[in-house]
Design a protein that fits this description.
Elements (H helix, E strand, L loop, with lengths): L2 H15 L3 H8 L3 H11 L4 H11 L3 H6 L17 H25 L2 E15 L6 E12 L4
Antiparallel strand pairs: 1-2
Helix pairs in contact: 2-3
Family: Belongs to the cyanase family.
Protein name: Cyanate hydratase
Enzyme class: lyase
């Protein structure tokens, strides 16, 4: 079964059942950001997690099994992205990326922020001038090594 089809079935079940990502995350004991990432095809679930999600979303067994397969990451969005929300993150990286790189190097040295040992959260912050999107990304610093 193609991963895009699995993702579509997950999204349809989520909508049909009126669930939020946090509801699904609670069922497997993970964060809503990681759960959404996995169920949108960018990370595998353990067999136990997949069974819990399958039960909650009333998914067929072949879909449940497909949720445990290690995916090809980063292949679901064309570059540059065309979706306005995704494009804004791309734009943020284009505009602020060089400054982020400089600040990371100044504070940590020569290295990168891991996207593997990584956590992320998204929350809504009420503001009288218009609500704000608060995104926190937290990745382990990985220094380049010499050999």
């Amino acid at each position: 079964m193609e991963r895009a089809e699995v993702t579509q079935q997950v999204i349809e079940a989520k909508r049909r059942l009126g669930l939020k990502w946090k509801d699904i995350a609670g069922a497997i004991g993970r964060s809503e950001a990681w759960t959404a990432t996995a169920l949108l095809g960018q990370a595998p679930l353990s067999p136990e997690e997949a069974q819990k999600v399958g039960s909650l979303l009333e998914l067929p067994e072949d879909v449940v099994q497909a949720l445990t397969v290690i995916p090809y990451r980063g292949t679901t969005v064309p570059m540059p992205p065309t979706d306005p929300v995704l494009y804004r993150f791309y734009e943020i990286l284009l505009v602020y990326g060089p400054a982020l790189k400089e600040l990371i190097h100044e504070k940590f040295g020569d290295g990168i922020m891991s996207a593997i040992d990584f956590e992320m959260s998204v929350r809504r912050v009420e503001d009288p001038k218009g609500d704000r999107v608060h995104v926190v990304m937290n990745g382990k610093f990985l220094p380049y090594r010499k050999w």
